[in-house]
Amino acid sequence: xxxxxxxxxxxxxxxxxxxxxxATAEAAIAVAAxxxxxxxxxxxxxxxxxxxxxxxxxxFDLAEPIxxxxxxxxxxxxxxxxxxxxxxxxxxRMPGVYHNTATVHDSTGTLLGLYRKMHIPxxxxxxxxxxxxxxxxxxxxxPTPAAKVGTLVCWDQWYPEAARLTALLGAEVxxxxxxxxxxxxxxxxxxxxxxxxxxxxxxxxxxxxxxYVAGVNRVGHEVxxxxxxxxxxxxxxxxxFGRVVARASHDTEEVLVVTCxxxxxxxxxxxxxxxxxxxxxxxxxxxxRVAD
Length: 292
Known about the structure:
By secondary structure, the protein is α/β, with parallel strands linked by helices. It has five helices and 15 strands.
């Protein structure tokens, strides 16, 4: 296996038009591939506006089966550009059961599998519990010719358990397709701290697990209700030491391409042997809601 692999991160602006968004994603995948990416990740729920700003039964009509039409477009883009593609779709599993689902296609266009978002938020304008059934596939790592790819989704970003279990499954890079942004009225007071916490949390996962981590966000102001959400972009790639090796802007569509070094990852783990020193005999309390 080569000492390096190269990943692409697509930060894009999403519209209400699925066809426009798919075309934007396809073009960005092609750009990343031309720049040498072997694995390309798209933002969370990239085929439309972030609809979870309100609760509306009619919006379940946005969901698609997998396999399905948008999944097929991702498969074709992966095959055409000979890259692994990590997508993010609103999955209709059956009437009444819907998931926030990451797809992984290999460079032949074959669907390697799914990761269904495990942690589902319920915050103002992020009303995901109304729409999404929590994932039931567990944490996943997909062996690809380029790398062992871990996929988590957005709210999963805040949970060290999710990153740790994905790393224990052998992930060399963990992708976080994301739709996160500011409430416009809060941005001036809390915006900088909110963004910093988001990035710092994931950089911490990179350090604690000795893996590359990529946060893949959208940009743009999307109004479904009220003032809407201003998605803050800021997509980035962290190395296993927690250093940001590439970062996108807060307001522009960008494609980041980063080469990841397996020797660097192993060197970090040799010097900081967190996996060696874990006290797995003493962690029983972690599976309780409260260890009292």
